[in-house]
Amino acid sequence: MAVAPWIAVVLLLSVVVGSRGFYLPGVAPADFQKVRSFCPLLDLFPELTFDRVGGLIPPDAEQKDPLPVKVNKLTSTKTQLPYSFYSLPYCRPDTILDSAENLGEVLRGDRIENSPYVFEMREPQMCKIVCKVTLNDKDVKDLKEKIENEYRVNMILDNLPLVVPIKRLDQVAPMVYQLGFYVGAKGQPTGNKDVKYYIHNHLSFLVRYHKDTQLDLARIVGFEVKPFSVKHEYEGQWNGNKTRLSTCDPHAKRSVLNSDAPQEVSANNDIIFTYDIEFEESTVKWASRWDTYLLMSDDQIHWFSIVNSLMIVLFLSGMVAMIMLRTLYRDISKYNQLETEEEAQEETGWKLVHGDVFRPPSNSDLLCVYVGTGIQFFGMLLVTMIFAVLGFLSPSNRGGLMTAMLLLWVFMGLFAGYSSARLYKVFKGTEWKKITLKTAFTFPGIVFAIFFVLNALIWGEKSSGAVPFTTMFALVLLWFGISVPLVFVGSYLGFKKPAPEDPVKTNKIPRQIPEQAWYMNPVFSILIGGILPFGAVFIELFFILTSIWLHQFYYIFGFLFLVFLILIVTCAEITIVLCYFQLCSEDYSWWWRSYLTSGSSALYLFLYATFYFFTKLEITKLVSGLLYFGYMLIASYAFFVLTGTIGFCACFWFTRLIYSSVKVD
């Protein structure tokens, strides 16, 4: 065949050139050398040395690979308000450069910038002076506030976040890791009642690397630090980074110890920033370097209890489904055996309302809008979780998860418009443009309004977490430029198709609904219906809230996907069961009831978020509390739309199924 020679050429080239692995953008491994030459000849023939090429390469053609450290935002679990690293009087490089950030990073409040900390690969250094800073009153106020609120400094080396190792005696793992180091600490000196504030001005870095056994290459697999507060002293005049310190001297092999006098934060004080850097070879391979970070939580996941809870939910769902199917099968068999008119007159239960069960509900337009939005949200979550399970949205891809969710939400507008238009046509609606506009603007408009208010509060605090105007404009552009047109396209396609026929005809005169038993009260049954779906997710919800508000990584997307599937089944089954009981009570107003039954689980989610706020968080500012409840209100609103739509779709399918399975004269 003609293809065979091309295959041979490709295979030959792959052998000659060498194949490289496939890596996601921004997360490919970086190889570092202790000594790098700029001579192309040495790159082609690494076995050559200077002696063999006889003076072709000058001695200064060698250079050590630099390891530039980047700084990220300052974070605190007490305020939830991030700030730029350079909002505090830290040492600055000659020119501050912002790293290119994706949409998700900006929305998270990340501000990644260069720093004066630059290492050389496998070149340890002791007591390297960075700079000297003299504090003014504003600097002192800012530092004390950040120390009081337990702010942490975050740094990045080769896309790895900086961690502080902490020994734990009561844990299975001997060491746990916390993201970033504290700006400083406060305490009371002996014999002094006043609280003093101390800054961590000396950093002892440790870079772990995995060395290639054949080449002199290394890959960074760990980035740790131990912060110290030390009041540096020196003799003579200050001579920049050439000054010889008496408290930290590489010539005398004197390193910083915890017993040294700490550096107090006070006005007109000179603070000297220094650091040590050590390199340690590690057996951890580059592909496994994130394992340390993903196992650093203080609250270890108790797999047995989580799986046990999920099994209980599955068991209950199976029992509910079995009871429902057995009862329904018996009812259909009984109804289909009715032959005489006298027997037909004795009918009771759900078949009696066949002439009203498909009567359009009140506020049917709004129901169409929320069902379409729920389909949009469902599609976004489903595709996002599939990508996350496949590893495309791992924590190493910083900001990737939020970026993916936003873009998928925008493009899923096509399905929102289509779904709302199809349901609108079932209700015999004719104004498809009106329903399309409502679908495109109702849910996003409410969320954007809340988000805008919260962002204004963050702006008022001068936090880096405030979304810049350009990013806000980009969000509006995505909404109006892509999402809204796609909603119109989907709505046009959905409205163009013929409306599905109802299994039974609707009577012209509505049937009177008899008085209901207390347990079939709409409010009571709706609140009961939301318990089981919430029970399917509340354990996982704890870990999600912990990762968001306590600044920890969340990575078990495979397990989350399983919980998501169980949530779908639970929402569908509990809604179908309660809908069946409602129809048996001759109450045919099931449209909104089915949506609210499973959607009420969002109420329990918000109540649990409130409980979490008062029991797990230590929020100190009113603005921070408003931010928490504002964002949790958005999350609960989205959860309501998602679960409500799942329940409604299940009930819609169920009613059409049972009324098409019985004989109706």
| β-strand number | 16
Secondary structure class reads: alpha+beta
Distance N to C terminus: 67 Å
- Gyration radius, to the nearest Å? 32 Å
Structure annotation, total helices:
19
Q: Beta-strand level of the residues, as a percent range?
A: 5-15%
Helical amount: 40-55%
Shape: elongated
Task: Tell me what the structure shows.
By secondary structure, this protein is of the alpha+beta class. Helix 11 (413-426) crosses helix 12 (432-460). It has 19 helices and 16 strands. It has helices at residues 3-17, 40-44, 50-53, 103-108, 137-148, 291-294, 303-336, 341-345, 364-389, 400-411, 413-426, 432-460, 469-496, 522-529, 531-549, 557-584, 591-599, 601-616, 622-659, and strands at residues 32-33, 36-37, 62-63, 66-75, 113-120, 125-134, 152-157, 160-161, 163-167, 175-179, 181-182, 184-187, 196-199, 202-211, 217-228, 270-281. Helices cover 47% and strands 14% of the residues. It has three domains: 31-61, no CATH class; 64-294, no CATH class; 303-319 and 364-500 and 540-659, no CATH class. Mean pLDDT is 82; it is low at 1-23, 37-62 and 296-300. The strands form five sheets. A five-stranded mixed sheet has the order 1-15-14-16-6, with no helix packed on it. Strand 7 and strand 8 form a beta hairpin.
